[in-house]
Request: fold
Amino acid sequence: MNWTEKTWIVATCGRGCADVLKAELAALGYAPQDVSATSVGLEGDLRDAMRLNLWLRSANRVLFEVAGFEVDSADDLYEAVRSLPWELWLRRDVPFHVHGVAQHETIRDPRFAVLRCKDAIADRFVDQTGARPDSTAAPEGAACVALYWKETDARIFLDTSGVPLSHRGYRWRGWVAPLRETLAASIVLAIEWGQNPAEAFIAPMCGSGTLAIEAAWIAQNRAPGLAREDYAFLHLAGPDVAAWRDLQAEARAKFVSAPRTWIAASDVDPQAIACARENAGRAGVESLIRFHTCDFRDTPLPKPPALIVMNPEYGERMGLEDRLVPLYEGIGTYFKTKCQGMRGAVFTGNLPLGRKIGLHPTRRTAMWNGDIECRLLEFDVYEGTRDARLIRKHGGGESAPQ
Ligand SMILES: C[S@@+](CC[C@H](N)C(=O)[O-])C[C@H]1O[C@@H](n2cnc3c(N)ncnc32)[C@H](O)[C@@H]1O
Reply:
């Protein structure tokens, strides 16, 4: 495998997070070229792919394109995939995993297309080496291949991530309605927290603590992939382990263990705080976050500048809509009475409930939580008038249509 040959890299992300991902890529020195709803493309080699796996906070996967062809049936796909030099890219002693999407009139179930890819890879291997590699249904510990087939356009990628990058490794999976780690990081980056080191980060209604933990990692300049060991690129043929060790060492050198940043997380449910503490412990940031078990209105606040970020229930998975109206009204009152001179942000999947906050957002950004279209509402709480009016900071524009 040639680790310095440039090809097309596609970083994938949740719907609504592509602008954040594009900004992350630009900050890492790349020139993102092709932005879709759920991905950003750029030119790069496998070393770039490793670096992106290590550093990107908002991406779910980093895909490295190895081929693209026109196909009109599953048989065409099989022949095209079989013609590729898999014996140079994969290893006999490591299982390979294939996943992907397929939309073509001849395909009723995308799993059939994936199966044909698997057969083609294994058959090519047997042709060239006499041995058949194992395939596996799970990406853990495997070399991973991704298929994207739409109409006659089929593209084959080495999925250099394997297990999605949202699996940071710190989360206790038992908590209800947690935000995915990559979505939480996208929210923190979208509201541009971390640019002013003096601005505190407060996460009332923290649930399992994902927002506060991702904020703490940003404050530490911690590469989100630093502690992760299982990357699919390490299971390819002849991985450039020396380059990977260099990237890890560089990331360790940039890590700031104890940034002087006020980060707090609170929740009314003691079990949520226990879970958030455990997660923060696993993420190595328990000592950076001030935890409080209390109603959101009683969360101890520092003086401004501070950012208050909340992800209240929105009736979809946890509570009923009517019951939540007083909660959203209470958030508006809280911002007006207790958060003057600060920034506020609310991430919700229920726009009518969001309007109950009763304040005019300076910006609304559409982001999807799985299948649920959500809004990130940002508020600037103006200091100095009796009613704490809101001021427009970002020109009042929306980053996505309602
Ligand atoms: C949707 S969950 C937050 C999930 C969180 N973002 C995560 O990643 O785990 C909403 C949280 O708000 C908390 N909550 C509800 N009402 C509250 C209140 N009045 N004060 C503080 N927390 C509250 C719930 O206990 C729950 O943990």
Remarks:
- The mean pLDDT is 92.
- The longest strand covers residues 59-70.
- The domain at 7-159 is CATH 3.30.2130.30 (VC0802-like).
- DSSP finds eleven helices and 14 strands in the chain.
